[in-house]
Amino acid sequence: MNQLPPVFMEKMKSLLGEDFPAFKQTYHEAPIRSLRVNTLKVSKEKFLELVPFQLDPIPWCAEGFYYNHDIDRPGKHVYHAAGLYYIQEASAMSPAEALQPQPGEKILDLCAAPGGKTTQIAAKMNGEGILVANEVDAKRIKALVENLERCGVTNAVVLNEYPEHLAPRFTDFFDRILVDAPCSGEGMFRKDPAVCERWSLRAVEKCATLQLDILYSAAQMLKVGGRLVYSTCTFNPVENEQVIATFLTNHPEFRLLPVPKQTHYQSGNPVWIPSPHNEVAKTARLWPHRLRGEGHFVAVLEKTDGEVRKQKIGKFPPVHRDAKQLWSSFQKENLTTELPEGTFTLYGEHLYFVPDQLPSLRGLRVERPGRYLGQAKKRHFLPSHALALSLKPSSVKQVINFSSDQPELSLYLQGESLPFSGKGWTIITVDGFPLGWGKASNGLLKNHYPKKLRWDK
Ligand code: SAM
Fold it and tell me: How far out from the chain centre does Cα 35 lie?
């Protein structure tokens, strides 16, 4: 068991009263492990037929399952590399459920890395609409991009900005916003000793100030009638009920909606904050001693009043004809059906499709302006890994399929070339699910699985 901060335990004792012994006991138990099926790639039914893991459903997320870490390691399975699921903590699935994303909407995930909730939102949007995934930390954003690519998300724009820089550009723009805020992480104590060491009362206060600042920017970016979900993985009321009460005082154009009730969720507690605000009972608490999960706080807010503005759609600089030509030839040679036409944009030699209706991104730090197609080199087109992972095998002319237990797959994921008599760009699939590109010539399939993702030999 990790060394828990005594001040933290004292506070929890006074908050939880008779529940405290059960709460304390959870620190003697192993962390709960879970995954979420990525329905952008596979239906839940097909997934359950395919995978060899022992699974147990999570009550509040239809696509979520507990697995047994003593028996199974789904994070190391080839289906993980193919993006069939995301390893996600069970209670962390609750905020995206409460957000209720719909296909075709404009949705912002403001604190997105490493992308657990972004990929969950993306699956619910089913590739339709605009999903802006923002992460302020330039290091953490790499994992976000990798996860979005692995999960085959095609409608995401990935930004690397402070929320206050985004707010003027996206004023009244989004139908839904998730603020899964940076927090003191008390729900991580069981998993991560470093989080315990960083914790202090001062850190809790600092987090609360930051959380309110982030919420104020989010409020500006939400449309009237839009839904804002705030969540943390911490237990203290200062970062939870208190943040929501202060936000409501300063933003009377918002009201709290009850979090859709789920088995074992508890209500937020108005008595825990200095100036009781009865409304906060509509928020939800997921406690580790009341359900199988590490714990979370979720609040659902609705913007009821404000201006309705016409949105300015961005103009993206015209892309040179040569780049489009290279892409077009690549499609004709290698795909059975061409992708729907979109607005192209070029960053260096990297070619993207920008989602329709997107405002200008000029002056913002952009990690991915849209669907990444590949690199338009001088004379040829180099398709991206993201493209491979987002295509249906039936839309690619040349495919080699292996079943999950065939040794060729491990060799491919380790970066080895494979014998193959075809010619040109080829998708390698596991049981029909794309893993990446190879390029065949002279009896050999040259490996194009990204170096940074390769498995150890
Ligand atoms: N939503 C993510 C997921 O489900 O995978 C987890 C997000 S984590 C709880 C909070 C994120 O907020 C971190 O990635 C952190 O880098 C980011 N963050 C830190 N400071 C921030 C700030 N000032 N504004 C916005 N985000 C910030």
Answer: 13
Mutation test residue for ligand 1: of 111, 146, 232, the one with most atoms within 8 Å of CB: 111
Find, among 452, 373, 445, 374, the residue nearest to 409 by Cα.
Answer: 445
**6-303: CATH homologous superfamily?**
Vaccinia Virus protein VP39 (3.40.50.150)
Q: How far is the CA of 198 from the centre of ligand 1 (A)?
A: 16
Q: Pinpoint the residues of the chain covered by CATH 2.30.130.60.
A: 391-457
- Give CA–CA dist 152/149, Å, rounded: 5
Tokens encoding 53: 């893991």
Best mutation site among 136, 184, 296, 365 for ligand 1 pocket (most ligand atoms within 8 Å of CB): 136
**Which CATH code fits 391-457?**
2.30.130.60
Is 260 or 447 the better-scoring residue by pLDDT? 447
In which residue ranges of the chain is CATH 3.40.50.150 found? 6-303
CA dist., res. 457 & res. 442, Å (int): 25
Q: Could you give the CA distance from residue 133 to residue 145 in angstroms, rounded to a whole number?
A: 9
Mean pLDDT over residues 339-361, rounded?
92
The tens digit of pLDDT for each residue in 357-414 reads 999 999 999 999 999 999 999 999 999 999 999 999 999 999 999 999 999 999 999 9
What percentage of the chain reaches a pLDDT higher than 90? Answer: 88
For the CA of 181, the nearest atom of ligand 1 = 10
Secondary structure class of 194 (helix, strand, coil):
helix
DSSP 320-369: PHHHHHHHHHHHHHHBSSPPPP-EEEEETTEEEEEPTTPPP-TTS-EEES
Q: Is 233 a catalytic residue?
A: yes
- From the CB of residue 41, how many other CB atoms can be counted at a distance below 10 Å? 22
Token pair listed for 128: 């339709």
Taking the model in full, what pTM does it have? 0.97
Q: Does residue 37 have a pLDDT over 80?
A: yes
Q: Which protein residues are within 6 Å of ligand 1, measured from CB?
A: 92, 111-117, 135-137, 140, 162-163, 180, 182, 210, 214
C-alpha to C-alpha distance for 60 and 94, rounded to whole angstroms = 7
